[in-house]
Design a protein that fits this description.
By secondary structure, the protein is α+β, with helices and mostly antiparallel strands. The protein contains three helices and four strands, in the order ββαααββ.
Length: 79
């Protein structure tokens, strides 16, 4: 049985958060809000920290995007 992955999408401009169950719903939402999104970016969200520097780096395990209406979007995987 596959484990369901949840994603948290932060709109850093509006200071709102939405939670999505699975990659398909995440991708649909990002495209709906006008983010230029490539499926090849998904592995970046899944990468665990490999060393001490990455553990301290806030960008590991998340991606930043800009929507059509110029909102800054951050996507992270929930554990």
């Amino acid at each position: 049985m596959k484990k369901t992955i949840w994603y948290l999408v932060h709109d850093l401009t509006d200071m709102t958060q939405l939670r999505f169950r699975g990659q398909k719903s995440l991708i649909n939402h990002l495209r709906d809000i006008g983010c230029c999104f490539d499926n090849n970016v998904l592995p970046q969200i899944k990468l665990p920290a490999k060393n001490k520097e990455e553990i301290e780096d806030e960008d590991v395990g998340e991606i930043y995007l800009i929507s059509e209406n110029e909102h800054e979007i951050c996507v992270e995987r929930l554990m």
